[in-house]
Amino acid sequence: MLRTLTIFTALIAGLAVTPAWAQKELPEGPGKQATVRVCTPCHGAEMFTATRLGKAEWDAKIANMTTERGTAISDADFATVLKYLSTYLAPETKQEGK
Ligand code: HEC
């Protein structure tokens, strides 16, 4: 019984390890800092690390965060964040950021 329990616990612990596809970290690159600063006060980066959008969609997404959710963002930050997101979280980029 104890043995079964040990195996069971090990299985659960194994499940808790984050699978590769559930990427939580933003890829390294220019604009990452600004993106973290602008986009993570309300929710974590995991809200959008797995999202893959084209430039127009990211533009709309950031605009939506601004108008609907009250994100404060300067024009310079908007441009930096848009460039970062549409470069590193583009549809053609793989989840691993390669
Ligand atoms: C002022 C607070 C705030 C800031 C700053 C913010 N968000 Fe959000 N965001 C929200 C809220 C509220 C939700 C909805 C959360 C929920 O549905 O649980 C959300 C949801 C999202 C979602 C998932 C739902 C959707 O509409 O697609 C994405 C993607 C997202 N945010 C991206 C961003 C990005 C990118 C930035 C930076 C430009 C950002 N957020 C900055 C408040 C914010």
Q: Which keywords apply here?
A:
single chain, 98 residues, mainly alpha, Cytochrome Bc1 Complex, Chain D, domain 2, 0% strand, elongated, binds heme C
SSE blueprint and pairings:
Layout: H1 2-16, H2 32-39, H3 55-67, H4 75-88
Helix pairs in contact: 2-4, 3-4
The structure holds heme C.
The site of heme C has 15 residues, from helix 2 and helix 3.
Describe the structure.
- The chain has helices at 2-16, 32-39, 55-67, 75-88.
- Helix content is 51%, strand content 0%.
- The longest helix has 15 residues, at 2-16.
- It has a domain at 21-88: Cytochrome Bc1 Complex, Chain D, domain 2 (Orthogonal Bundle).
- The protein contains 4 helices and no strands.
- The relative contact order is 0.18.
- It is an all-alpha fold and 98 residues long.
- Residues 38-39, 41-43, 47-48, 51, 61-62, 65, 69-71, 81 line the site of heme C.
- Heme C is lined by residues 38-39, 41-43, 47-48, 51, 61-62, 65, 69-71, 81.
